[in-house]
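note to self — DONT lose this again. spent like an hour looking for the file last time. sequence + predicted structure for the chain T wanted, 122 res
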Amino acid sequence: QVQLVESGGGSVQAGGSLRLSCTVSGYKYSRYCMAWFRQAPGKERERIARIHSANGSTLYADSVKGRFTISQDNAKNTVYLQMNSLKPEDTAMYYCAADNAPLGCPLNYNYWGQGTQVTVSS
């Protein structure tokens, strides 16, 4: 059974930083993508970053480019999201997701974590 467990959320003032972690267990695929999504109340879910396990290629949403960094530690089956220069509009529930990616990363993901709340105050 695949499980994704996020941690690292919390409350921070604008301009501050947080690092989210997502540890995967029970995953069988050797080539996969992991992504971070977020959803604020009343808004659609947004994919903000993703990384491919095989080559480490990354992709970011424009809303976080230059401020957030996704990285992975394959030995620990963990993906991180370093969030710097946080803004109040970054406030949301953050989710990590994973799926098989024999070639490129998918648009939709089948495996999800439970989410971790990030709140940025002005």
